[in-house]
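Researcher: Good morning. I'm working through a list of sequences from a screen, and I'd like to move beyond sequence-only analysis. For each chain I'm collecting a predicted structure so we can compare shapes side by side. This is the next one on the list. No need for commentary yet; just the structure.
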Amino acid sequence: MAFFMLSQMEATMTELARILRQQRVMRELTLEALSEMSGVSASHLGRIERGERFPSAHILRKIAKPLGIAEADLFTSAGYLSPQLGTEAERPIGAQLNPYVAAVLSQEPVEIQRAVVTILTVFKGMAKMLE
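Model: Good morning. Structure tokens for this chain:
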């Protein structure tokens, strides 16, 4: 079970790194330019793009606007939010993190953020099983 979760997290990190680099290159931004625009060090951004570091929600929030990506889309790519369904009627209640919870969680260390998201995912799965 732990191996599967680790593999899934690595896949998410690799995909997120690819998306971030692709968006930066499409906007013709250097790491240094993105660093200046976001306030995140160029070396940290480079490690994220290489898949060596998983960005916290706080870092994602800082780089979303300069990259021209909606925060919700970036949070979904990182696994912090559930993917959106087509219409309001199709969306289950509580499909997203409450904005207050997301704001508070973004201030926590990455390990805490991952743990909370994992716990919420487990609870969500249990609720579906009980339906």
